[in-house]
Design goal:
Blueprint lengths: L17 H12 L6 H14 L7 H7 L4 E7 L2 E9 L2 E3 L14
Antiparallel strand pairs: 1-2, 2-3
Length: 104
Amino acid sequence: MMNRVLNIAIDGPAGAGKSTVAKAIAKKLDIVYLDTGAMYRGAAYFALEKGISPSDADAVKKILPSLEMDIVYERGTQKSARIRQGRDSLHPRTQNQYGRLGYL
């Protein structure tokens, strides 16, 4: 039997229910749910911590190779994208937790 790769992308405005729909689809199809929004917020937070504006694409590209990110799952559900900085672990889970990310 061949292994199948299935990628589903859901696009839409903030608050439209993308994550809710994605989680339901993943559960129904028994596939992994990956919250790329959490990953993007994590990368933006990492840039801000380095004094770089997330809108400065060239500067962000330069620091991305040094970004170490773990996707944290609990009981099969993604809880956050964790950024490792030395011994610290940061969990920028929502825009509301970190006001500086509210405009992203």
